[in-house]
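Quick one: structure tokens for this chain, please?
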Amino acid sequence: MTKRGVIHLSVLVIILVALLVIGWLTFGFGWDMLDLISDNPFLSTLFAGLTLLAISSGLLPPFLRSLKRPNIEVVVSGDSEALQLTRSEGGRRAEGTFQFTLVNHGRDTLSDYYWNLIVPKRLNPKLFSLKEDEEKDAASFQEDFLLFQGLETEPLYPRRAYSFPYQLKMHANPEESDSIIVFFFSTEFGMYPPEVMSSDRTGAVRPEKGLIIPVRNVAKE
């Protein structure tokens, strides 16, 4: 429950307690007061309404936040649901160049959100900006991965698609095993997917909980 929800609930509880105290001072406490409430339509309706308000003040805010929570889908450009590394013309390596589309299935516009992309180092990834025609820097992540990050300011409207303004290039040994890449996002509504952040105090990133896209090496087939 949020701090605001706690405040609302506390106020309603105080009002409810105050009414009970007034009833006790006026009519006495115990079964007589309960009988009075049950026999009086106005008091019964008032008591039931305050009870429902107290419950809804705690449940409604989280429900409304869940409606606004982002629901982002990362789509691989083309017909394939996975990234496929194919054998190069010289046959010495498996390689591929890929682009993505972001789809907002949520109910609210996303603006000024951060994207994060995790790629295994063994795939030798390079990320190029399609806007500025330059390579994006990466940071080491958990020894075996590279982490690319960036801020997008172009709004991603509900039920709309947006071309991710970067191109990912990868190459590996032709016999390299299949792998995955992982996207996750930091928005004004929180992390997406929310499970990507550890629930402990370290706040560590758990890539296995992100938006996973398979990388298949068809060069070895």
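Residues 3-68 form one domain.
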